[in-house]
Amino acid sequence: MAAPDKRPRLPFRYLDPTFFAGQFDDPVLYVKIRPTGRGLLFDCGKLHHVAKRVLKSIDAVFVSHAHMDHFMGFEALTRSMHVTPKTVDLYGPPGITAKVEHKLLGYDWNLTEEWWGNWRIHEVDTVQRQVTLFPGPAGFVPETSEQLKQVVGLLWQNSYLKVSAALFDHKIPVLGFRIEERPGFRVDPQRIAACQLLPGRWLEELNRRWAQGLLEGDIRVDTVSGESKEVDGNKLYEDIRLRCSPPSIGYLTDVGFDEANLQQAIALFSGVDLLICECSFLAADVGQARRSCHLCSDDLNRLLERLRPGYVLPMHLSKNYLNQGARLYEELEPPAGTTLLRLPDYVSSRPLLPRELPFRFAHHRCADA
Q: Using CA atoms, how far apart are residues 287 and 296, in angstroms rounded to an integer?
């Protein structure tokens, strides 16, 4: 008999989030888009433990900030994608374009091919968004930047989801992200009954026209009286659709707990189903949290009280607490309706010691002269 599945039942239809990190690992969130098989990556610290086929599936990367534990895996990403003829978008805070350029300048690109891939860097600010292409076939020499009027807010979208962002303070600008499914076709049986309608094949027709964006025009529906009638498609769907917010994920890391950041978090993450949030320090070390612009457990408790997500995943605990990770969960007090998710200490593989390798060179002792 198979063991029961103890994984949390998250309310996502199109999104499949995987957190490739433990409490003490560098944060790495991968969100697979089920209908396409592609994915989005949020932060990229150490990536050596993430399968190459996962990295190759990435269409866009969202970097909160360029501290090493959030950005040092950029080279691993480049190595995985640069020989694939596609363009990968990377979104980051002010200054990210220059940092990408310096990273790419650290390598020789004298053996480029025409079919190599490209990086397209989006530098997100409150004034404008700068877009710069780094074409692989040209050795990643940056091309002329494009200035867009669109700033923080909606960054990326497709038919299944959208990604929005806001800037927070960590003594440098830091991006927080909200990943939200696009609204699906959902009807409310109680509203259908209240409209004196009988479910039937007309629901399939309404679903098909909704998917095609062609709700205009009449649809013939069945009524409880046994008759049928013509109803405008737009009005029909508005009358019977299920009133609910699309499922969403909030991702927040490396922010100070102050009023400005708190209000920004409430604006961006209100109503999220899953909040993935840093909690670097325990309550007793609130002074260190303030000095380093991080959250402590009391801060996260206050944030949860305001946001009340369905689930919360605390992460990025300071390595000062090695072998004490359970203390964090003891201090967190999520409000009613919020489920606390727990991480193992580590997910990434540890470094190997010489004695653990299957093949080693024998040590030869030289005879004394």
A: 9
